[in-house]
Structure formats: structure tokens, C-alpha cells
Design a protein that fits this description.
The chain has one domain: Alpha-Beta Barrel (TIM Barrel). Strand 6, helix 2 and strand 7 form a beta-alpha-beta unit. 25% of the residues lie in helices and 24% in strands. 31% of the residues are buried. The protein has an eight-stranded mixed sheet with strand order 2-1-8-7-6-5-4-3. By secondary structure, the chain is of the alpha/beta class.
Amino acid sequence: MPIIKDQQILENTWTFVEDDAPLTSGDITVSVTRWTQEKAALLQHSGKVGIRLAPADDVASLGDELPFIKLIELNFPAFTDGRTFSQARLLKNRYNYQGEIRAIGNYMADQVFYLHRVGVDSFEFNNPKDMELALSAIKDFSVRYQASTY
């Protein structure tokens, strides 16, 4: 499935591996639980490794491990759950995370502008039709009254 990254549509090279599934080759993301339980094996993985965060996951628990994590997927179970906005802001501002932050799940194209302002670098949509709308939404406003990560 394609993603939006660097304000263009690109092919997604990452695969999420469920907790009970065997690790696959290539670039993978895993849950925080799996990262915690299998960290040594994941650090030896031949591809890049990322983590998928649920809104209830504590960003602070990743602390010193962030340099090993190349992608963090912030999962939106519902577009009304704003905790992922806070997670993105904390990752970029408080923890100085340098890797990619990707929004996944059930959010709206209208939220892309605001997600980008708090540090989200890339976007995966359940409905590919939302991608063109999201690309234009990143540039919705030319004047900003509040400081942001970007």
C-alpha cells in the first residue's frame, strides 16, 4: 500500500509483524510488547526495525532505545483519539527522535496538517482515495499562530 512521505506518494517498504507471527525479512515494525520481549533478536534483524505504538503506550518507556528504532508508527484506533498527537510531539521535542514517525489507522485527511506540525513525517491511509486530499491538506494554512515541531 502506498504512503505519503516527504509530501509525495511512495511505496511502503515496511511490514508490520503481529506478535504471534514469525519475523519476516526486510524492514519490519513490531508492537512495543514484542520489542521488549525480543529486543536482542530484533537488534540482529537483517532489515530495519520499527515499533508500532498504541495510544496508551508510554513514549518515555522507549527512552534510550530510540536510536535503534528507525520508524515509529502511531496507530489511530479512532480519529477522535488525540493521544497520538501528543506522542508525536513528545518524540520529536522531548526525546529528540530522529527517525521517521508515521500515522496509521483511522484518522482523517483533514488531520494531516496538524499531524505534520507535531512531527509526523509520513502517512498511511486505509482508503487510498484520501491520499490526494491529504497531500493538499499539508499545505492548508500559510499563516500559523502557534509554534510547532516543523
